Amino acid sequence: MAAFGLASLLVADRIGRSYPHVRLGGCNATTLLRAALVAALLMPLADGWAAGYAVAALAMVALALDGVDGWLARRSGLVSRFGARFDMEVDAALALVLALHVLSGTVVGAEILVLGLIRYAFVLASRIWPWLRGDLAPSRRRKLVCVLQLSVLIALQIPALPHDAAILLARGAAMALIWSFGSDIIALRNEARAQGELR
């Protein structure tokens, strides 16, 4: 509840600063619901009941709703940079919480944290290299890799998954994610260089 309350306060602050519409809309309400589901996944982790079928089921609901908020935003004319960023941050939080579940409750080792921390590492790097804050063109590859990342993290919660298969899935998803982020970094670097921000 504390985590969700803090997230709600941050969202309210950002809405007041950068949301261009007069109503929140079902799209952002859906994303807020997804944030509540992510917060709920902290409970079993804190109680020592990491991973398992219940965690996988709740995470599947959160992932399924990921496609709903964007559709609602387009349908209601409430598309915004705020909504896109809000959705992305909820995805990142979901990935981190699920990665912690995998680390605590399965045979997969610390390499799983690549799937949970890479977004935050990128944000930290952008504080050092401002050109990483540039705008990226919409990318089907980026969306597909995000779905792959979250789907693998959900699959890894299932106790019946063979150990070798779990490790292979985790490493494969990590490689795909590193490739995707690497492609975006190269694109941002080339754009910054073209604009004279880099030499």
From TrEMBL:
Q: What InterPro entries would the database entry show? A: CDP-OH_P_trans, CDP-OH_PTrfase_TM_dom, CDP_ALCOHOL_P_TRANSF_CS
> What parts of the sequence cross the membrane?
28-46, 53-73, 93-123
| Top-rank taxon | Bacteria
Query: Which Gene3D superfamilies does the protein's record reference?
Result: 1.20.120.1760
Keywords, A to Z? Answer: Membrane, Transferase, Transmembrane, Transmembrane helix
Q: Which family does it belong to?
A: Belongs to the CDP-alcohol phosphatidyltransferase class-I family.
Q: Report the protein name in the record.
A: CDP-alcohol phosphatidyltransferase family protein
Protein source organism: Paracoccus sediminis
Tell me the classification of the organism that encodes this protein. Bacteria, Pseudomonadati, Pseudomonadota, Alphaproteobacteria, Rhodobacterales
